[in-house]
User: Fold this.
Amino acid sequence: MALETEWYDFVCFGIVGVAFLGALLMLGMNEGASQRDFETTYESLLLSRPDDEVVVDVLPRDHVSTSQLWTSCWRGLHPFWLLCTRFLSFVIMLLFLLWDVLLYDAKIFVYYTEWTFTLVIVYFALGTVASAYGCWKFFNKTHIHNGAKDEFLSRDVEETMPTNINAYQEKEAKGSIKLESRYIEEEFQQRAGFWGYLMQTTYQTCAGAAILTDVLFWGVIVPFLSISHLRLSPLMGCMHTLNAFFLLLDTALNNLPFPWFRVSYFVLWSCGYVIFQWVIHAFGFTWWPYPFLELDNKWAPIWYLCLAVIHVPCYGVYYLMVRGKNAILRRFFPRAFLRSN
Assistant:
């Protein structure tokens, strides 16, 4: 084992351990809510709604319906534009990541930046698939509904038929259209399921991680720390800018909620990275990608404590931006903007 430990290193282990267990506890209290609590049961990632139970009139707080994955918060904006935005974001970021890997080889993934950049790409990949499915679903349901309606409106009434038969057929057609419309509404308001919540949690995790990455890079590493393994370049500048830019662009268009308790996934993500660093150093990795993660430093507990605390404002900044979007835009554009929760 190449990782030598001092007494203060165990303080660092304790800080990460407390953050990890605290995040799991928060998720257990929210994602794994008891079925007796209706308001939290159906916002859970771990619980699924029975197929025979559909609630149309009452949607719980932070519920993620299928349509929210691919519709926009702007009324009248076709889902195709959100699909284009997500697909282009996915392609551009993937090209930058491939450029980075080809330039520095696979060892570049020892950096938190690459982890976060990859996670953002995963979110846009999931978002692209969801938006593509949503566009297909939107087109087909609209086509079927309008076709049934047009068929009813354009139906010729034969004069030779008795009046009561015509009235019965007209009533039956109206009832069929009404049932079809209700079915579409119920289907759109069903919860998203595992893949939908995976997309939702990935979105909230990479939102906090992107803010943390860019703040540490531009606010700490570039002005105060010198890393011999990487030098500031246009590629590195883009890697620490595009992640937040494309996420903010998607946030301005998407219709996803942003509950506070899912900061836990962000904390777990960072804890996983730190544990990964400990493991590879225990097996002989010789240098630390970030000086503030080094364990052979008596100031390490202070650094680790600061890193743990900074997760709250980094996630909080994005949380406030989403809240501001819902509050400000809804006030100035009441007829064009739809609240994201």
